[in-house]
Design a protein that fits this description.
Helices cover 55% and strands 9% of the residues. Bound molecules: glutathione (GSH).
Amino acid sequence: MTITITAFERSPDGGKGLARDTRVRWALEEVGQPYEVRLVSFRALKEPAHLALHPFGQIPTYHDGDLALFETGAIVFHIAERHAGLLPDDTNARARAITWMFAAVNTVEPPILDLATARLLEGDRPWSKERLPLVTDRVRDRLKPLSIRLSDDDWLDGPFSAGDLMMVSVLLRLRASGILDEYPTLAAYVARGEARPAYKRAFAAQLAVNKPTG
Ligand SMILES: N[C@@H](CCC(=O)N[C@@H](CS)C(=O)NCC(=O)O)C(=O)O
């Protein structure tokens, strides 16, 4: 069976790799699994055919035979469980890598998303100037302990794992804000993730769809 994922027909970021199909593409590249991509328009996201796959009308989804999944945490976890390369064999090390996957989507990503919303969607609100520093500090509250934990290590817990893949994917969304540069340890960590051949292939594949024309 061919794995099929969904992605934006035209990503709002114009190919910067910030749409969440990139992390699924990255996981599939890391484990060497070929995949196909079905592009979905914003309108089609909210139509019954797509809602049957994704109840919240979002991308990405993952389809393989009679298995359909949504939520990148679950999709990347499934890929990592089924194919070697993203989770250690040792039971405890595996549990710790999974813990970092949850930490990425559950603890680190939410304030980063709040910041993106505050900057991009709420910038013209009268209360925006007052709120922005508060939201930014909530991001720093996550980055500081993360950088302390990472310290001089290359990855969060031994070799690169699905935990790092999710964490780097989440942190990448901060680049435009400049906040990542306040934490050189984390900026270097993200750069290490982006330097992986599998990430580069995933990035190139999404760029091929979203490259600005003209
Ligand atoms: N928690 C979900 C979030 C999915 C999500 O927010 N997808 C965005 C693209 S990156 C989307 O489809 N946005 C369009 C919309 O929500 O209408 C995941 O990790 O899969």
